[in-house]
Amino acid sequence: TNAVTKHSFYTAANTTTTNGTERFVIDSSGNVTINDGDLVIGTAGHGIDFSANSHATGMTSELLDGYEEGSHTATITIGSGTITTTHSSTLTYTKIGRVVHVVGRLYHTFSQSNVTTWQTSLPFASISGGNAVESGSVVGVFRADAVSGEAPDGMRRIRVESGNSFANMVFNTTSNGGDFGQTNPHIIFNLTYYAS
């Protein structure tokens, strides 16, 4: 309709809309408006192509081909001792393209304050590619004591190595980061990494 200024697409009229309902509009500037509804990508691997933009020398893709948000029930693995009580193990994630951001509080009671190693599962496996795609973060931990030369009071480091579907807690000089000095640490998880 009105081809000079816009093209409008309607769904059929019914008992309540005698002229139909305008759903999709392309205006004279080339802008597209979806009045009510979603843009559904019907085939995996397709999305929004930004190849008209300038890009850096190392560019490998300009296609935004996915979005997802949800929750992940974390599986915690420790190197020694046992998990006596699980208080909170749900993480929340948002995935835009291959970038995943995960937040939440992981709270467990352990049978001992030093569980040697600490590991949590992730909602998606990390992308392969070696050091260039490795991720990590510093997280706050309520009820975690300082470990001399390794970790400050109330803080710990998280590492996601290339190709892994889990994150490890690490110390300053060793990959074994399971000494909390307390048996019931609250780990405030906040991590961004690349999914495969």
Fold and architecture overview:
Helix content is 0%, strand content 44%. It contains no helices and 15 strands. The chain is elongated and about 75 Å long. It starts with 5 loop residues before the first strand and ends with a strand.
Spell out the key features of this protein:
single chain, 196 residues, three-stranded antiparallel beta sheet, 44% strand
Topology as a string of helices (H) and strands (E): EEEEEEEEEEEEEEE
- Overall shape: it is elongated
Counted by DSSP, the helix tally is 0
Total DSSP E strands: 15
What ranges have pLDDT less than 50 throughout 5 or more consecutive residues? Answer: none
End-to-end Cα distance, whole Å, is: 45 Å
Q: State mean pLDDT (0 to 100 scale).
A: 92
Largest sheet: 10 strands, antiparallel
Radius of gyration: 24 Å
Strand portion: 35-45%
Topology readout:
Blueprint: E1 6-11, E2 21-27, E3 32-34, E4 48-49, E5 63-64, E6 67-73, E7 76-78, E8 83-88, E9 90-96, E10 99-110, E11 118-121, E12 135-142, E13 155-160, E14 166-170, E15 186-194
Antiparallel strand pairs: 1-2, 2-3, 4-5, 6-9, 7-11, 8-10, 9-10, 10-15, 11-14, 12-13, 12-15, 13-14
Describe the structure concisely.
This protein is mainly β. The protein contains no helices and 15 strands.
